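I need you to check the entry underneath: sequence plus fold tokens. Let me know what the token row says about the fold.

>
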Amino acid sequence: MVVLAFVSYSARRNANSAQKFSSGGTTYPALLIGFLLMSEFIGTAASVGTAEAAYRVGVSAAWNVAALGIGFVLYSWLLASRFKAIGENTISGALARTYGRNVKLATSVIMIFALQIVAISTYTSGGAIVAPLFGIGRSTAICITAAAGVLYVSLGGMSSVIYTNVIHAIVKYIGVIIALVFAIHQIGGVGELQAQLPPEMLAVDTVGWAQICAWLVAGIGAVFATQYVVQAINAVPDEATAKRASFYSALLLIPFGILAAMIGMVCQILYPGIKATQSFPSLIADMQALPATIVVAGLAASLFGTISALSIGAATLVYKDFYLPISGRTGDDPASLRFIRWATIVAGLLPIPLAILSTEVLSVTFLAKSLRASLAVLVLLAFFAPRFGSPRAAMASIGLSLVGVIGWFLAGNPGGIDNAYIAVAIPILVMTVSRLLGGSNAPAKEPQSR
């Protein structure tokens, strides 16, 4: 935290206006942004949550993270250069160019909502790690980690997020490798892992292809339509660099998911019968002080990296889509900078009460991915078929997707149909019906972002 605070304080030179605070204030190389994108998606929900799922179903739980890697490969191919070319650093701003201001505001609201859901699951899993290690209550652990994470990102803005997430990514990898090496040593080697686990735990499809496909739909949708991805992509100098950065993030994501899943599998041997959510924490509790400290630092990095991305992503949407139009300011004045700093703090602290009440990790995160998958359909249509459907149909798609996906999730995914499929089906159906009824879109004239 001392290092992060120093880096964030140093990054303040790139955050001396609201525009620079949200964009990074300069351009960055592809590898740096690749580390950033990887780190933003690997929160405690991905590390602890994947280990939790692997404790139950085995290595196939790694698909949860691999889906994100596949998403970034497709993003590199289809969207990275296009987002960079239009110069928009918000999802809502990109959609507004095709569907108008009403869709822009609706997109902003649903994106903020999705980011807050991810924050809830991030704080929940982070509290599960920090609380037993420091002998404090889970609620206290959630409050402390949230406050610490929000504090440093509010200092340096997007520039701080970029630099600190490179540190986060490195520490995460070191931590998860140390944890896995210790765990495998405890059971007597990889051979014992294969010998002691039932064959289905070692199969890539034990979780079921329906679940794997749902993870792919939700993961790809989350990559295609997540606010902080667009902000990161716009921090590179050109379109070719944007494509490389996206591809680098995929190369970093997929191995991490496999490592986290293997930790959960080893914990099934070491700690049979415990709650799956306690598999990773139980392993850390058995480690000696120094390696345990490094692993905890890696998990804390997972927590803080995601907090920073979620906070600045939500704050940027509030600032650009609501504050600037209502206030009439240009974004270069001190009042705008003060607003986006406070918006970042509020966005980071707001999920704390619900995180304290939450017990699920992976399923709640998955819901947020599903909500963004609906927006991903509109993003693809906006770039590749801008005249398919209409602004009114796009607006209806967003509203119906929000109600339908959450309702389907709360109903327990009736008929075994995952809510991710509902998230994709609704906008496709609504826009297709609009097209068949004669609805066609003339790209809207949205004012340029200030």
Summary: The first helix runs from residue 2 to 10. The radius of gyration is 21 Å.
